[in-house]
């Protein structure tokens, strides 16, 4: 799954790193479409955070069409039904399982109507699944090849998602969800779910091009993590539990490496362990919750 996001780039930096191949076979930078939801750089963004989202401009119901085929637009992370502009009650809609979206009254209409999007992030936080609530260790996952010096080279991870549009009079809200699938064997030691990551321009285009690629084929084309090239494999390091577990703590220290405590790492899949950090309880352990 994906519980927190981090993206510290400004809007212009994001646009420059989201270049895509247009229908005229030219590289284009997506234009930003602004609304009353404002994207701001975030170090530790929980669900309900406004995030940067890439989508086709044709299905956004904009008053003014973007000059680029794909555009960037701020959206609330955590999908709302079309009849709600504000969340009431306990909404857990920031992640959507691809295995279940065709059975969902919330996600299926967005999928079938072409409301496909890409959530832009530098990385995400994951809490390692362990048997005790107090033993969960958070990690920061990212693709930067420089390891813990990721601040110097702000790479982006593009997460496949769906969005919805809610209207209440003149008020229009965009909200989105991240698609997840079962984690492959190299990542399952951390958590049994992981987000669907789009690594290439072709993968991004295939997902966003809802007019030419219908939803069933688009789902089938979503890449599997175990098939991605070496340069796209996720890196990770442990982070400070006290900082990251506090959703109101939005500071750079949330992303910084820290010694891991209570980390149960499978000896079968420990090739990603970062040298130089302390991991306790290094014994084989396999745990998979029922739900």
TrEMBL record:
Record keywords: Covalent protein-DNA linkage, DNA damage, DNA-binding, Hydrolase, Lyase, Protease
Pfam families registered for this protein in UniProt: SRAP
InterPro entries membership: SRAP, SRAP-like
Stated family: Belongs to the SOS response-associated peptidase family.
Protein's recorded name: Abasic site processing protein HMCES
The gene coding this protein: LOC108556425
